[in-house]
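Could you help me review a protein record that somebody else here produced? Do not assume that whoever made the record got everything right. The record follows directly below this note.
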Amino acid sequence: MKERHETVATAESLTGGLVAAVLTSVPGSSAVVRGGLVVYATSLKHGLAGVDDELLAEQGAVHQDVAAQLADGARIACGATWGVGLTGVAGPDPQDGIEPGVVHIGVSGPAVAQVRTIGIDGNRHQVRAGAVVAALDLLSRLADQRD
């Protein structure tokens, strides 16, 4: 991304900023990372990241379309080339009937948008860590396709 002068931003729910933290742990990341939104509360998904209120009311906060809109919202709000959005249930309890370990990851960028839904077994820490790895993998694969 740095060579292409591209940037990235995040809108994170279940990971609470962990993707942005991992991205900024790389020396020189300030040339690529624009920022991130931690939108743990459902109201902030709309208020900060622009997720449609009707979608949140009808589908709830843990939905693949929410992840897609979080990715777009991060990209737009932070003025980035790429946006990454995550929502899911880290556990230990289900949320709105959705079991722990369900994670929706959205990535949006130049002429591309993709959502991946995964299931991660394990405790809360393992689900969040797995979500970070999966999000960075999806971002990397989509960004590399532009080469």
